[in-house]
Fold:
Amino acid sequence: MKALSDEKREQFAARRSAWTLSQFLHGEQGALLCCGQLVEAVPDMDGKLYAATQVVDEARHVEVFHRYITRLDQVYSIEPSLHAVLNAILEADLWQMKCVGMQVITESLAMGTFKSMKENTRDDLLRKVVELTAQDEARHVSYGLIYMKEELPRMSDPDRERVEDFALSAIRLLTTGGGGGADSSGGGILSSREAVYTEVGIDYDEAMREIGEKANDPEFADSGPRMFEDHVVPQLQRVGLVTDRVAPGYRELGFEV
Ligand SMILES: [Fe+2]
Ligand SMILES: [Fe+2]
Structure:
């Protein structure tokens, strides 16, 4: 990376931002679809009305990220682990899994990432976009937390345990990649993330090694383990989904629960 010219460096920065924002865009599209499902699936009228307002919020988020990315560069394809988690949420048979997967896990992760981006970007427009989006996401996370705190104790033990397992497997997928989902990033060519690096002449494997060594550097912390430690796992603990039964699974992933 040190040998890059100023022009290449700028090109790389734009592509890297477009790649990150593309993942937001895919997440927002997933949220839009998931909330549409929740309008139908949640059992009470208040829950339906709230989910309907969230559909409108997510449609606005899809629009704003798409516009911003296409001015900057291009939309990159979805990362396999995110794709797998969004699919699992959309295909889940219990609406409580959808609510936990989207409102509690994915939206908490988005909020943490937006916060980091707001602090690190030098682009005023992007700062405003992520600030306003994060305000909406905070409401969505609160809805999930309040709703699930009431709902989980009402569930049968087997169903609640399925939600606990679902949450753990979503965290495993997002933090380790899960080793699957190879179908979603361009038919076995390059992952879109890899392409961002190789197209400007950066050795991807070497760059990943350097990033690994800079795990505490805020510039590289967007999707790092601290995001989960600080923003996602504590929310799962708050709603009571990190029970003694599943806690060893979280510890295996390196979380102190
Ligand atoms: Fe959103
Ligand atoms: Fe949201």
Observations:
- Confidence is low (pLDDT under 50) at residues 179-189.
- The longest helix spans residues 6-41.
- Residues 31, 58, 107, 136-137, 140 surround fe (ii) ion (ligand 2) (CB under 6 Å).
